[in-house]
């Protein structure tokens, strides 16, 4: 954080740029529902709530745990050497080592969007915070798992693609889809649990749905940790000068 | 463009294309990513058409599906963070070594990026045809689909030129990396990648139609959706000429600045 704040001008430029980026997504959904009307029970207010959860959790993970998306690249390029020499848990240090200031804008935007359009009450706020935290665990574990495949296949793009896929798909309400697309969103790429399910819980709290969310988040969190840990045993030095 | 320039440009494109084809893992990921995205987004628009009485802004479900298949192919084939990559090369001074070549920095980069994009574009097109045929059946117009092929290549060129023009800001602004977010959203909405421009409110449709982003995704999508409007290719070519001029001017000015400060 100190490094990111060393250049306040660049910090705020990137935060504002990301916030404007998020406004564009809001604009897309407003335009879409203006044309399409209600689609399978979803309208603009529900989607804005979904987007608030998504941007908040994405901001937490991509902003404050920015290296979650870079594990594959670091592993493939031998960029973990300096990290392994430190007397700290590698994964924990790796995750917090870098902050992406642009994505901090997501965090700010998401919270503001919920406060403005989410009808915050103490109960809704509590569910929102819980949903965001669960989604954050999932958003950390999924790219960590896909990125750690680089330890086994030697290529680093899987993490980035995995992250982009889950983020892009999480921005769409899963209930709009049927058949194979919907199955994809609840299983292989669990994007429905990143924003759709948490936002539905805010409007309609249900214990079973909440347990499902927590279970999926925990499963992918553990999968990410396990894949990274197993992969690290195979890691060999890339003889690259890096900073820890 | 002189014969010598055309020759090295073609060599650059061919070399980059062969390199991209050799990177089978990267190509596979791109095509998988494209397949997942289009399956989901086309399903979204078909649901919208179903809720809207069968059409949305004059597009039926089949037309919307083929529109998205083409508009997404035109953008997924490219590195979405190209502006960041170019900006980093400029900020780090790596571009200074490229200036030592007896060839235009912008030209060499464009040749490499077009070459890298072409195999991905071809792969996305093939995947798109399969997705379209299996979800909604035949393309609305064979002529439209045929016209969308050159439109996709022109869209790639327009997008790359615009990204380089944006990235050239790094010659003056130390941290222009974050502009890729904004650029991407301009292509998403004003470029028609996520939604046909006809779905925009009238005033916004007018604005989008007057900007170069429509050449990067809307045109191939419009043609593939069955609207045989060949004049759109002329529009793309015109925007490519404008964007090439802007990018070349920006890079020339930026390279002079690099020399002036001893980069």
Helix and strand arrangement:
The complex is a heterodimer of chains A (about 240) and B (about 260).
Chain A: H1 2-5, H2 8-36, H3 44-64, H4 71-76, H5 81-84, H6 90-96, H7 101-117, H8 122-148, H9 150-153, H10 157-170, H11 179-186, H12 196-203, H13 207-232
Chain B: H1 3-22, H2 24-51, E1 55-56, E2 59-60, H3 61-76, H4 82-92, H5 94-98, H6 105-135, H7 142-167, H8 179-190, H9 202-209, H10 218-224, H11 231-260
Antiparallel strand pairs in B: 1-2
Helix pairs in contact in B: 1-6, 2-3, 2-6, 3-6, 3-7, 3-10, 4-7, 6-7, 7-10, 7-11
Please, how many domains of chain B? 1
- Spatial strand order of the main sheet of chain B: 1-2
Amino-to-carboxy terminus distance of chain A = 15 Å
Q: Counting H and I runs of at least 4 residues, what is the number of helices of chain A?
A: 13
Which parts of chain A are unreliable, with pLDDT below 50 for 5 consecutive residues or more? none
Give the overall pLDDT of chain A as a whole number. Answer: 84
**Strand-residue proportion of chain B:** under 5%
Content-based structural category of chain B:
mainly alpha
Sketch the major β-sheet of chain A: none
Largest protein-protein interface = A-B, 40 and 36 residues
Shape of chain B, please?
globular
Q: What is the H/E string of chain A?
A: HHHHHHHHHHHHH
The end-to-end span of chain B amounts to 29 Å
Count the strands of chain B? 2
Rg value of chain B: 19 Å
Describe the structure.
The complex is a heterodimer of chains A (244) and B (263). Chain A has 13 helices and no strands. Chain A is mostly helical. Chain A has one domain (2-232). The mean pLDDT of chain A is 84. By secondary structure, chain B is mostly helical. Chain B has one domain (3-260). Chain B contains eleven helices and two strands. Chain B is globular and about 60 Å long. Classes of the chains: A mainly alpha (244), B mainly alpha (263). Chain A binds chain B through residues 7, 10, 13-14, 17-18, 20-21, 24-25, 27-28, 31-32, 34-40, 102, 153, 155, 157-158, 161, 164-165, 168-169, 172, 176-178, 180-181, 184-185, 189, and chain B through 25-26, 29, 32-33, 36-37, 39-41, 43-44, 47-48, 51-52, 56-57, 80, 174-175, 177-179, 181-182, 184-186, 188-189, 194-195, 199-201.
